[in-house]
Amino acid sequence: MPGPKNPNSEDSTPESEHQELSGDRKIPAAVIKRLSLYTRALQNLERNKVEKVSSTELAKELGLNSAQVRKDLAYFGQFGVPGFGYPVGELRKKLKHILGTDRKINVALIGVGHLGKALLSYGGFNRQGFRMRWAFDIEVRDKTIGAEKVPVYNISELEQVVRRENIELVILTVPAEAAQGIADRVVGAGVSAILNFVPKRIQTPPHVKVHYVDLAIEMESLSFYLR
Amino acid sequence: MPGPKNPNSEDSTPESEHQELSGDRKIPAAVIKRLSLYTRALQNLERNKVEKVSSTELAKELGLNSAQVRKDLAYFGQFGVPGFGYPVGELRKKLKHILGTDRKINVALIGVGHLGKALLSYGGFNRQGFRMRWAFDIEVRDKTIGAEKVPVYNISELEQVVRRENIELVILTVPAEAAQGIADRVVGAGVSAILNFVPKRIQTPPHVKVHYVDLAIEMESLSFYLR
DNA sequence: GTGACATTGTGAAAACGTTCACAAGGTCCC
DNA sequence: GGGACCTTGTGAACGTTTTCACAATGTCAC
Hints:
2 copies of one chain form a homodimer. The first copy, chain A, is an alpha/beta fold. Chain A has 9 helices and 9 strands. Chain A folds into 2 domains: 85 residues, Winged helix-like DNA-binding domain superfamily/Winged helix DNA-binding domain (Arc Repressor Mutant, subunit A); 117 residues, NAD(P)-binding Rossmann-like Domain (Rossmann fold), CATH 3.40.50. Helices cover 41% and strands 16% of the residues of chain A. The N terminus of chain A is likely disordered. Chains A and B meet through helix 1, helix 5, strand 8 and helix 9 of A and helix 1, helix 5, strand 8 and helix 9 of B. Chain A binds a DNA duplex through helix 3.
């Protein structure tokens, strides 16, 4: 905790987190991200009919240290078998359960500009356990977007639709000036997870989790390494 | 260039970096990302005709600790004035120079699928000091993409165009199976910075910097916090 | 069954990043 | 021009994350 600072549960590039779990230990945010990485690697292995994997193999595939893999997994239980490794299918199932991606999560996107449209058309999300079927904008130019025909609602209907459709996660791709206002509204409507593509930090109550994806920052910081 | 089996200079979500600078100290990757954040905040201040800013104000705006702001900046020199703060315009210029975004960097995007198309149409990059005017795919469906009419080349022309146009940074949005092969080719053609949207770790020689943007991971890890 | 082998889970150490706290030094009002 | 006031730059303390290293434990071939 940043001492006597304002409340705020964000995290993005910076690390630092908290979160109760079944047990009672705090799980670092970085561990959660790696869990997701492990899940994906396990899915690939499963597709190739591999039935066991060691922490060393997993670590190599993902560019990590094997002790880190074991420690990450140990946060959540004992999944491995000494002298054998981890059973691929079983571990994958357990991790998906821990991540909560073994069910469908309803996702809405707000701000149908170029980037928003792109993400809607992309469709990659719908595979992974997400149902991204709602879009909002202040001006509805097209009634649906993308091959999946995601309907676009007027932003005035935001709270109503979020509540009715039980939307749990929101992707923000609005102009910077609008970000805080929209964030306040979705939080008010009960959303507690936001993926923010807007290059602007937003303030939220502590129970709301915000992840930032900042494309400009990624590009600029790469620029630095061009010597 | 199929298999340089080198270590690896990537970093993405995980922290850990190094990089020589004018002086001789290693600059953590997280510091570089925050530098980019500072630059943006300074640009906003400048737009509002603010002429000075203290580390405390900057920290508050970005949700950081003021000592961290000072320390980050101190990696690169003494920009502040005790009892006064930092001169906005001057600091912004210096940071842009440090980041190397005070010149135009040529950027190509490889893989014109949904996401690739979206990023091309988005156009947000071209503002910040990047010139994203080349796209590649194995199959050229449209000759140009987006309002900016970015020409799409056949992937067979990759090396030739990269060299001719002096492309320094590449955005990868190809299918996972193709990622490593394409990465090898662009590196072979002289590119040393890659922004990889493909959910697959790629191996590169140490001088090549890879940043990962993994949308699925962001979504999944948010899912965890939905309890 | 037994024994050589492989691999886990985890304390302890090391590395790294953040925050504290304060001396040094510039500002700016009177 | 003087002095109260700010704010920087930074060593040291602190906290977190990663890595090491190894005892414990299960595997598997014979």
